[in-house]
């Protein structure tokens, strides 16, 4: 027996409809690539999204199911393209400008991008790269006629404002199925080629509904939301959908993500909520420290995720600026929000510092995210805060496969997606990432967390940076090697480091050797490149063996 | 092109799964029908829901698609039946004990209820009624063996605790389609027969997700939620779904809804949020006034809806008890939540009393509720706070038809449901109910609000109660007749009333006549029965005609 409720597909354009209809005068403030601050509203966003939708169909022959790339900062034109193209059933493939040219080339061709909408910033990149992007029909430069590059070598360059001017502000959205694709984002791919995640209208709408909840991002119409996290970084953690969903004011920082520029926007626009990775917040806090008269009176809370957040950073916001910190975890494959650090009712009684021991963890899943940790054989591990295993998730906003079926081994028969993270779950349900599964060191069937070893080693006097990797071992399968960079002019020996670690980690976790190097390799995102390190030490043999 | 996100049907049992898995130790506290306070948890609710599901299948032969009735107060056993039966694909039909026997009889037979789960309270009702409920196979009395009535005349009486004891706590839910029916609730039907609304798993899950948002009921894990609004009254305004969805503690008031009983629970269990109709809150406030030492230190907010809420009631909560009031509107056909009175960011600047003029309205729609007002020809009316028209809604948790296609005229070709309410929408999007469409008086193609006439007349000295109805008129189609009950011993004339109204309503709204009666007829719910009044005055002719 079927229910008798309305067939109302969950389409992302319904979010824009709602914002335009009920919050039409709410502002969207953007720092433009061209320089000035730009102001518009949800009503105007709706009209221009419809314009670009109709013009994209008529002038560029973009059709339902076509994959169209954007390489753009967070700004009003990116929102217009986003909603406009998704609204006609095209798939918006957000390109990350921080990718290496090789990866970009691979991704554009693999996705089958037909057109690329690009900010002025990235025109030089595509001028260099376009010969390797043979299937791309042309480039829409997201600026006005006055700012169009005079002599661009781009193939078929189109001025965005000219294009939109030819469109129809009253264009009616076609009726789409909620399971149709509307977005695509490639994982960074530290091993192997990047893999494409394909979001549906349904997954994006459900994910945004999850995100607005009080124990998630707690978004209301009274918020002024600044998504620093880019739209090309897993849907700006839903904010390009969830802020309009509730009628929050949006503040889009454009290309300037330094501390001073962000502070200026937070202050001038009275931002109440923002979201970014730790690096961004470190820059903002640094700017505030350099200018002790500056405060954050309007900023009620910040969401932090994307990589492990140092406790000192969290405490600086809370204790110095009275800004609440919400620790979150997620990934491209989970749209991305997977956990939130909101306090549970059953933990109300905890003393301040007791609560902080949980608050620094990555948080707990909301309704719509199923989560478990398992050993290598898929057996569920206990929620005791100690056992760590492969973190697996399931839900309506979590990938069931990658584009063209790449990386199928990440998905099991019961629909669980193996995140590649290794984590614990405590008795209250709070998850803490302990490692990446490919970095964990497997010694005699047991796991050693490379990150915990590194964190312990960092505390040793004279140690500037440390990285732990597994080295093949005839008896134990793998044993840990600790690679250390000394602080300038510091004296520290292998024995000093091992003595420091003793008592801080289990005895069998102690590295079999410590080697000193001048520099540890890093990825473009600033993380330690374990991949390169493993390459560097692939022939290493422990002396004692 | 389809998205590649997981197929994760929106089933109500997933809400319980989430609560049991991540908030398993969170309490459900109920005032039992038998007397004592009962305490359980979401983990135990999950086990017992699975038990009753397996036992219902095995012992009562209840199958997917079967319609099963409950007549029960808000309590833990009702939650078990609710989730257990919905989980196996049965349809839980909640019966309202306040219905007249005739309606109950009609509803049970129309719905095709196969079994009735009843609280002890209602056993006498069914003993009397059961001969007219031939298709009902039997009655499960929701109590334990010790409290089973010794000599009940009920057909096939089954003791609930015996039944559940035979079930399997580890029963696995079958895989259902999210569009399958899971709940049924009949509208009160002031005209014609009651009509059945059939909820789906999908509509209930989406509705609960809408309800938890900060601008809706703002539910978090830190809340202790007391649904006074019954589960048989349109899903307890989502709370039986939305509280477990976020891991809030639940406090279920059982059969005792008087001021003192509710106060005791609010105080003892530190309730932070509650929801009820105005009558309930008037009883609570009366109890507090009688006991001036009592305060509401934990109660952060109450949701009020179901009928127009007097401003004085709202102000008493806010100004005397520092408890925020959320005005809401909805109906059985909209699951029921349709609007919420949360303040918009663009209204932050309003002075206190300016905001109160908006706060007393019914509120604005959340994402997931489309709303418009139209004239009789379906033309949309402006959002100016003055024009009033038929209130129409659309959305994924709004009915597309009634059970067995009753009342098809309420639904138009574009999917809009005509609520039967008449309302205004102001420039900020806040809706205010001005009348029921069948009560509005249509004079020369224009509408006169019967409720506004009545409210104006009530202010006239000597008038105890007033009702306005339309009387057929050869020229104007209808003209208003005002029916008045005088206060005891008061002297008030037709001319006095008309003089009082002059200047308070538009001149063409002035009633063509005023008649005095000893009593105005009321419905079982205490509202003025316009239907009976129109019957009484069906042969009335204005003298001046």
In short:
The first copy, chain A, has 545 residues and is an alpha/beta fold. Helices cover 28% and strands 23% of the residues of chain A. Chain A has two domains: 12-325, ANL, N-terminal domain (Rossmann fold), CATH 3.40.50.12780; 441-536, 2-Layer Sandwich (GMP Synthetase, Chain A, domain 3).
Give the topology:
The structure is a homodimer of 545-residue chains.
Chain A: H1 12-22, E1 27-31, E2 37-41, H2 42-60, E3 67-71, H3 76-87, E4 91-94, H4 101-111, E5 115-118, H5 123-129, E6 138-141, E7 157-159, H6 160-165, E8 181-186, E9 196-200, H7 201-212, E10 224-227, H8 239-246, E11 249-252, H9 259-269, E12 273-276, H10 278-290, E13 301-304, H11 311-321, E14 324-330, E15 337-340, H12 352-359, E16 370-374, E17 389-394, E18 417-425, E19 431-436, E20 441-443, E21 446-448, H13 450-458, E22 463-473, E23 477-486, H14 494-501, E24 513-516, H15 530-536
Parallel strand pairs in A: 1-11, 3-4, 3-5, 4-8, 5-6, 6-7, 10-11, 10-12, 12-13, 13-14, 23-24
Antiparallel strand pairs in A: 1-2, 8-9, 14-15, 16-17, 17-18, 18-19, 20-21, 22-23
Helix pairs in contact in A: 1-2, 1-8, 2-3, 7-8, 9-10
